[in-house]
Amino acid sequence: MRSTPLRLGLAVVAMLVSVGCSSSGSAGGDGRVNDPTHTRLVKKADLDRCPTSSATSVSDGLPDVTLPCLGKGPAVHLAGLVGTPTVINVWGSWCIPCRKETGALSSVYDALKPKVRFLGVDTADDANSALDFGTHVTPAVRYPSVLDPDKKVLLGLARSPGPPETAFVDAAGVVVHVHVGPYDDAAQLRADIAKYLHVQ
């Protein structure tokens, strides 16, 4: 009889712990469900839509993961990005070198779309911080990004321990080059696009 209150107390504690865990994960891991701040930031950021992707995977392509879109559009199966030469930039709003190169990425994207597809991979980050970050860059970031909280793309490319990192993917979906570290300017990025993706 004396053990019953103890059992009841432990059950209550277990229930509270499980509720706490499930509530933190109920928003898909990024806290976006029923979040008016996130909805406002998506509208303010006005990112281009995430691209459609094939369900099949390309040999020697990007990691075989499907990641949710940071802004508008479908989740993206990275290994299924085919049909258009693509620049994949692994970044995070917390990453100082990433901040330095974002203006160059944004200006080259504006100049080369739709000949070259750009996709950011926001790594180990908070979605709202990432959306807000892009609005403070000149020119403002408009290329789409996906969310990668577990660093699956960074670990899958296995070229560096952290961002920034930029992968060049040809129209067949094959990774032809990975640049580790930030780009100093738009000219350097355009030179690599011309060299590896053959787009001027």
Kindly describe this structure:
With 200 residues, this protein is an alpha/beta fold. The protein has two domains: 1-30; 35-197, Glutaredoxin. It is built from six helices and seven strands. It has a five-stranded mixed β-sheet with strand order 5-4-3-6-7. The protein has a two-stranded antiparallel sheet with strand order 1-2. β6 (165-169) and β7 form a beta hairpin. The model is unreliable at 1-31 (pLDDT under 50).
Task: Summarize this structure as a short list of keywords or feature phrases.
200 residues; alpha/beta; Glutaredoxin; 5-stranded mixed beta sheet; disordered N terminus
User: By helix and strand content, what is the structural category?
Assistant: alpha/beta
Quaternary organisation of the protein chains: single chain
Say which CATH homologous superfamily of the largest domain is assigned. Glutaredoxin
Elements, N to C (H/E): HHEEEHEHEHEEH
How many structural units, i.e. domains? 2
Give a quick account of the main beta sheet: strands, pairing sense, barrel closure.
Answer: 5 strands, mixed
Mean pLDDT: 82
Instruction: Bin the helical content.
Output: 25-40%
Number of strands: 7
- Give the overall silhouette: globular
What is the percentage of strand-forming residues?
Answer: 15-25%
- CA radius of gyration: 20 Å
Low-confidence stretches: 1-31
